[in-house]
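$ ./design --mode recover --in tokens.txt
reading tokens...
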């Protein structure tokens, strides 16, 4: 008991001394501690940007200089570029495809539903993008096939519109706004944190490689092509090893070329999205000042030639599902 009392008497002055130090001898230590605490809070609240993407190696020797060189696109997020874009000419094609890279640490994903795909409205998130949402909008891009062509499911806003298929290629959005691509019930699962799942066929890229058995002349297994020819407008989206999203679209693409582009862009898993000229579109918005609203007037297509464009997501008649990426 005596030794305990002695320890208590020693502990009290030490605690008081520590408190005094935190409060500051002349304010010096207090300011330092306060500064460190403020920095820690700021770091917690401010997401850390992913490393910017590295230049991509062109498929063709002597390709034009811009091929594979990334440039920032769209409004910045927290003062930093959140989207980068480039072009690549896929193997065996004379045409350029567009590639976009998106920082999932800086951007929040949202699935917008349409009256045609998936149908069964009304929906809170549907075209047109609202004025409030436009204040943070950085990019928007097309969703997948119409049902039942997608051969998969659809879940959004707490509603299971079409049952999710085990093994289906899935674009999954979580409650914190992060998004990824994976095989359902292998890479991604239904949890309380999942707010949206958009499935479309099966994975096109897995483990960083195109899946086996792709037929360059395919006109049906990976979506019915317009005119029954294998090289049409196609699009796809994937996730990189560090969690960034990559999107690809281009004209006259065979399914093997789309897969090759997604792999070259760094996707470890990727899936096809919509196809044919009327349905593929990726747009970034660069309002001035950066805090202003996104509008069709400050939007820019990833690649020229798409039928849809910056206006599409602001039109009430747009009946297809799509994704937006917005400043967190």
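writing sequence...
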């Amino acid at each position: 008991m005596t030794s305990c009392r002695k320890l208590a008497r020693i502990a009290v002055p030490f605690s008081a001394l520590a408190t005094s130090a935190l409060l500051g001898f002349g304010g010096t230590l207090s300011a330092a501690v306060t500064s460190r605490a403020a920095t820690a809070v700021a770091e917690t609240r401010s997401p850390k940007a992913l490393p910017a993407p590295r230049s991509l190696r062109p498929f063709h020797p002597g390709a034009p200089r811009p091929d594979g060189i990334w440039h920032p696109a769209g409004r910045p997020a927290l003062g930093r570029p959140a989207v980068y874009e480039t072009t690549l000419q896929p193997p065996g094609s004379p045409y350029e495809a567009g590639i976009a890279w998106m920082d999932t640490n800086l951007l929040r994903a949202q699935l917008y539903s349409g009256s045609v795909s998936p149908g069964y409205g009304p929906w809170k998130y549907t075209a047109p993008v609202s004025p409030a949402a436009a204040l943070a909008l950085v990019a928007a891009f097309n969703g997948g096939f119409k049902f039942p062509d997608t051969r998969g499911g659809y879940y959004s806003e707490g509603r299971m519109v079409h049952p999710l298929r085990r093994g289906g290629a899935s674009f999954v959005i979580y409650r914190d706004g992060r998004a990824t691509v994976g095989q359902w019930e292998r890479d991604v699962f239904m949890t309380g944190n999942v707010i949206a799942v958009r499935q479309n066929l099966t994975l096109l890229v897995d483990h960083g490689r195109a899946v086996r058995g792709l037929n360059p002349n395919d006109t049906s297994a990976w979506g019915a092509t317009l005119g029954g020819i294998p090289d049409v407008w196609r699009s796809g989206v994937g996730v990189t090893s560090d969690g960034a999203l990559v999107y690809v679209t281009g004209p006259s693409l065979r399914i093997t070329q789309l897969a090759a582009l997604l792999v070259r862009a760094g996707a470890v898993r990727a899936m096809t999205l919509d196809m044919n000229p009327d349905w593929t579109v990726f747009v970034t918005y660069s309002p001035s000042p950066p805090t202003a609203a996104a509008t069709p007037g400050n939007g820019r297509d990833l690649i020229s030639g798409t039928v849809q464009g910056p206006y599409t997501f602001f039109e009430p008649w747009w009946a297809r599902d799509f994704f937006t990426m917005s400043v967190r």
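exit 0
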